Amino acid sequence: MPVVVVTDSSSRLPASLLDEHSILQVPLYLRTEDGAEYAEGGPDVPENIISMPKVTTSGANLADLTEAYKRAWEASDGDGVVAVHMSRRLSGTWGAARMVADDMDGKVRVVDSRSVGISVGLTTLAAAQAAEGGASRDAAYEAAVRAAATAESMLCVQALDHLRASGRISTASHLLGSALSIKPILHMSDGLLALRERHRTSTKAIAKMLDAAVELAGDDAVTVGIQHCQNPELAAEVLERASERIEKITSSIVVDLGAVLGTHVGPGAVGITLGYGLTPIN
Q1: What pTM did the predictor assign?
Q2: What average pLDDT score do residues 11-31 get?
Q3: What is the DSSP track for the chain?
Q4: Residue 92: inside a domain, yes or no?
């Protein structure tokens, strides 16, 4: 079997793609105010957890990572493992992954995707597609690093209060101010979520986000990922509008941000990610 790829649940890849590419996934975790802990994607996660007060999140744990990496190593028949995880500046997952990888004597190479959400997913797919094409562990790792370096990701949220409270947005940005009622466009900058623009209405913010995506894509062939938090109708609309304006879309995917990321960005968020160099996905 070729190199096996592992990721975490921040990638938002649907089960069908995980199965198709034999990708292993470890969960992130949520903890409620009463101390109950849930693995993201588990059947017992409360449906309303995003709106519950004082919910905290944590990265993939050492036990889950160790079990997944060992399974992946065995499945690879010695070809090796590439692990793609969310930005090290947003989660402790990458640090935990490196600890496990170091204990496995070079069997695993860990990629810092420098992003979150479906951008992690597209980076993961880049590694998996390279592996399926016969790439070595190091070549699959490099394919993921290239995908991570070239991906463009933006997100419109309804307010900054969720992100500011959790510390997941750069506090260095002079644009933050105190106007939590603005409709911001966020993007990834040096592995952190930062404020790209701010607008008075969601309609204007989404229009500007699409303008930016069209400009960034240019005439390159791109994979378009749309992600949202409990807002599938708006996500479908954003994909339709992007498809009308971006010249060369090889494939597209729409995903929900899930409980962990949703806790940080809040309901109603919608974003677009551009991935480059990917084989069309189903």
Answers
A1: 0.93
A2: 98
A3: ---EEEEEGGG---HHHHHHTT-EEE--EEE-TTS-EEETT-TTS-TTGGGSTT-EEE---HHHHHHHHHHHHHHTTTS-EEEEES-TTT-SHHHHHHHHHHHTTTSEEEEE-SS-THHHHHHHHHHHHHHHTT--HHHHHHHHHHHHHH-EEEEE-S-SHHHHHHT-B-TT-TT-TT-TTSEEEEEEETTEEEEEEEESSHHHHHHHHHHHHHHHHTTSEEEEEEEESS-HHHHHHHHHHHHHH-SEEEEEEEEE-HHHHHHHH-TT-EEEEEEESPPPP-
A4: yes
**Phi–psi pair at 146, nearest 5 degrees:** -65, -45
Same domain (yes/no): 19, 40: yes
Please check whether residues 78 and 156 belong to one and the same domain.
Answer: no
* Domain end position, chosen among 87, 115, 149: 149
Please tell me which residue, 135 or 181, carries the higher pLDDT value: 135
Within this chain, do residues 144 and 167 fall inside the same structural domain, yes or no?
A: no
Domain that holds residue 11: 4-149
Per-residue pLDDT of 234-281, as tens digits, reads 999 999 999 999 999 999 999 999 999 999 888 999 999 999 999 999
**Mean pLDDT, the chain, as a whole number?**
92
Residues 50 and 175 in one domain: no
